[in-house]
């Protein structure tokens, strides 16, 4: 499991715009780089990131080779109801990871 | 004629650069772009925090059923390790030498946990070093005060002032005499190693001070000292004394 760091406000007022920040540990190997022995390292990147808020998709992104290692993704959404935000990264070599964060909306 | 010009060029380089006065000392942070500075300031943005999280998990986790985790002896790192990293390299009684923080982690691992030492620059080693470094963030760098460190400190100072490699540069020629100027478009900082291990954007990875020193040596086309070499620790020791009193920034971000 890759290490992921997620920053979500624990509480928010209904209708507030909340900022969400995510970081995940990933090499984002482009598939173009030769290694020390001169052999091109096979591509190993994250392809897609999605955020679901109480099971409704509120944000998604496609990732490509030009994106740095350990990608940082930040976005905003509107606090609608208390519940769970789930974050899923999928990528090459069957990579799939989901993290969750709880939010209380008053 | 060519030889004459070469001599003139050599003479035009400042021969012996003076040390930077304390009032003019500046962290590498000050030379970075505002975007990179923010990346370091905000823990939610700093990729080095991924390593810190790994280090924290390792601190709690027993490496085998027979061995205690780090926390088993040292307890809560936020209390027991506060300020510890700021005083490294330090004198090691067992080997009678100066050792840096990563060598201390490995020594502890081998003697007290009966585990094989972590490889240089491996994720778990950098993770633990970053986690311990974080416990000193905001505290002043402690100058080495053990008198038994004096010979190593002297050798480190000498190395810092010794020209090496095909380009025949010493550390001091760039970092004391020409800081603030540019080398191939990048600002030359003062070489205060206050934020190691660092997340370096150029590496797309975390790295130790030894990795950075070896980088500089390759840059002047010198054969770098191997990881763990006494010379690298001596240089680290001198750098530490040179930055004494400055604020620890670990885990820092550098371009």
Topology record:
The complex is a heterodimer of chains A (106) and B (255).
Chain A: E1 4-7, E2 11-12, E3 17-24, E4 46-53, E5 56-62, E6 72-78, E7 83-91, E8 95-105
Parallel strand pairs in A: 2-8
Antiparallel strand pairs in A: 1-3, 3-6, 4-5, 4-7, 7-8
Chain B: H1 2-12, H2 34-41, H3 48-60, H4 70-74, H5 77-80, E1 90-92, E2 97-99, H6 101-113, H7 123-134, H8 150-160, H9 171-175, E3 182-183, E4 186-187, E5 198-200, E6 205-207, H10 209-219, H11 230-242, E7 253-254
Parallel strand pairs in B: 5-7
Antiparallel strand pairs in B: 1-2, 3-4, 5-6
Account of the protein in words:
The complex is a heterodimer of chains A (106) and B (255). Chain A has 106 residues and is mostly beta strands. Chain A has a single domain, classed as Sandwich (Immunoglobulin-like). Chain A is 0% helix and 53% strand. The radius of gyration of chain A is 16 Å and the shape is elongated. Chain B is mainly alpha-helical. Chain B is globular. The A-B interface holds A 3-5, 7, 21, 23-25, 27-28, 68-70, 72 and B 44-45, 47, 49-50, 53-54, 201, 204-205.
């Amino acid at each position: 499991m890759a290490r992921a760091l997620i920053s979500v406000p624990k509480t928010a007022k209904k209708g507030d715009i909340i900022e969400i920040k995510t970081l995940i540990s990933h090499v984002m190997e482009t598939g173009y780089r030769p290694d020390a022995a001169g052999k091109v390292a096979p591509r190993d990147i994250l392809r897609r990131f999605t955020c679901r808020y109480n099971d409704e998709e509120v944000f998604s992104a496609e990732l490509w080779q030009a994106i740095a290692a350990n990608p940082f993704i930040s976005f905003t959404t509107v606090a609608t109801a208390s519940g769970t935000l789930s974050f899923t990264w999928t990528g090459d070599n069957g990579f799939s990871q989901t993290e969750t964060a709880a939010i209380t909306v008053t | 004629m060519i030889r004459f010009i070469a001599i003139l060029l050599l003479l035009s380089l400042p021969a012996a650069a003076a040390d930077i006065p304390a009032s003019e000392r500046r962290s590498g942070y000050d030379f970075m772009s505002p975007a990179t500075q923010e990346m370091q300031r905000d823990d939610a943005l700093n990729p080095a925090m991924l390593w810190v999280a790994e280090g924290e998990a390792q601190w709690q986790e027993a490496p085998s059923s027979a061995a205690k985790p780090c926390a088993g002896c040292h307890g809560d790192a936020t209390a027991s390790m506060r300020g510890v990293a700021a005083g490294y390299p330090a004198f090691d009684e067992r080997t009678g030498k100066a050792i840096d923080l990563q060598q201390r982690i490995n020594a502890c691992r081998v003697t007290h946990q009966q585990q094989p030492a972590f490889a240089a620059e491996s994720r778990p080693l950098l993770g633990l070093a970053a986690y311990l470094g974080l416990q000193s963030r905001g505290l002043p760098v402690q100058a080495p005060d053990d008198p038994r460190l004096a010979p190593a400190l002297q050798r480190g100072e000498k190395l810092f002032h010794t020209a090496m490699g095909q380009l025949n540069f010493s550390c001091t020629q760039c970092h004391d005499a020409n800081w603030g100027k540019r080398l191939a478009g990048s600002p030359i900082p003062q070489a205060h190693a206050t934020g190691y291990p660092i997340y370096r954007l150029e590496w797309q990875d975390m790295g130790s001070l030894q990795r950075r020193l070896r980088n500089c040596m390759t840059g002047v086309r010198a054969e770098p000292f191997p990881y763990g070499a006494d010379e690298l620790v001596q240089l680290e020791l001198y750098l530490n004394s040179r930055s004494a009193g400055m604020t620890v920034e670990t885990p820092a971000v550098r371009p």
